[in-house]
From TrEMBL:
InterPro entries membership: Glutathione-S-Trfase_C-like (IPR010987), Glutathione-S-Trfase_C_sf (IPR036282), Glutathione_S-Trfase (IPR040079), Glutathione_S-Trfase_N (IPR004045), GST_C (IPR004046), Thioredoxin-like_sf (IPR036249)
Family to which the UniProt record says this protein belongs: Belongs to the GST superfamily.
Coiled-coil annotated residue ranges, if any: none
Name of the protein described by the UniProt record: Thiol:disulfide oxidoreductase
Lineage of origin: Bacteria, Pseudomonadati, Pseudomonadota, Alphaproteobacteria, Sphingomonadales
Amino acid sequence: MIDLHYWPTPNGHKITIFLEETGLDYTIHPVNIGKGEQFAPDFLAIAPNNRMPAIVDRAPTDGGAPISVFESGAILLYLAHKTGRFGGATPRAHVDVLQWLMWQMGGLGPMAGQNHHFGRYAPEKIPYAIDRYVKETNRLYGVLDRRLEGREFVIGDEYTVADMAAFPWILPEAQGQDMADFPHLSRWHAAIKARPAVERAYARGREIQPQPAEMTDEQRRVLFGQSSTPAR
């Protein structure tokens, strides 16, 4: 039913978590971003931003032609609408889901991504950049920690796509963070990690990429050297 164009990254994990939680039928089509497969014409037809994940729903609810969706947040909202699950059970809850999903898409994901880049992947270690993004990641962890005080999940008692979106981006060891500083976030993170659907989602990722290899110069060129004329 769902074709998932995927690589096991935080944004990719968001979608497999949702699909495993709902039991929707899906087939993974690996997109090896280190080899530049995100620039293949067939993939660009459904994901014009050269980024995975993307989906093609071959059985949309209106019974019409297949629907393609790119951008992980848009995919989560589309699937929540399709299934009637995890999008917020009431109008007020839905507003909360939208706010926190946009927070992840506009804040936690991009800032943690820059943290990863300058701390792990950049060929030159720039202290100012590393410090900048480690501190911003710390600030964002604090925002989520305060939000989770007295709440089981991001919007309250209801598990939603807001949780699914944020969870894969909490990588404290890789991001220079100490989870002991964030007790509510730590409790939430452990609970999400232990969900059977989350365990299955990450297992699917290990099937695709059993052991991430050290990044080569060619992979850096493909991933980080792009302009409006993609490197191939």
